[in-house]
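Our platform keeps sequence and structure together, in a single record for each protein. Such a record has a labelled line for the sequence and another for the backbone structure tokens. This encoding replaces a full spatial description with a residue-level series of whole-number codes. Below, we set out a record of this kind in full and without editing:
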Amino acid sequence: MDIDANKNIYIAGYCYSSDSDGLILKLNSTGHEVWNATYGDASGSDSIYSIVVCGGLLYVSGQTNSWGLTSSRGFIALYSSIDGHFMWNFTWNGPNSEDTIVDLQIDRHCNIYALGSSVEPALSSMISIQKYNSTKNLLWKVDYYGPGDVYTGALLLSPNQDRLYVTGGIDNGLMTPQDLFLFKYSSEGNLLGNWTWDYSDNDMGKNLLIDSYGNLFIIGDTLASTSGSDAFIMKANFANSGNSPFSNPLDLFILLLILLIIMAPALTILIFIVYKKRRK
């Protein structure tokens, strides 16, 4: 989802009849539909995973095997954000049989930063970080295979647009639990740092956020308990003189407990007021 300067809302996903098509919805600030558009044809399945609005332009990415493709490919497509008409698209064919452009970021010059995933089911997976200019020309590409499978999470361009962060999950191919990874690149594709984080079994970074002070937050999940996976949010600290930027995450249960403790006096007063009114 993305929101433009006029508070219009853009939502991406897929719709399904006989096969799935990528779906784009534009809603105004009151939630009423302005227009909708689909991506794909009747011959294959298509899904949109990322959407970014840039002025009068709307960029989407995902996975397609329409138009006679014999395997799934990642794609990037451009639409008008004004009326939803299709402008252009291109596909990415990775080294494996199931390719997806999972996430997108657009800079002030409308250069496109893309995070791709290429998977061979039951065999291997890798990720690809790519930069294209506004006319679809590839400027640079960094492929990462890792010692084992690599799973894509999210891509984030820093507010001043000189840093690019990538997160996801990685294993070392030795049947050990999956670790969260964080890569830091310059806007020109130079690796500035890479870290892994092992909190428990199968840790995965799924989203990235930067606040107004430049603090980076990682949101994901971990198999930290026997009952299943737990969600977490973690703040990365890059002032650690080259050491790991990771600290212990805040489990969402702990966050809720803290909020309840903070709100307890107000809740007590509210319950007392309601009780007194009912007694009257």
Notes: DSSP finds one helix and 20 strands in the chain.
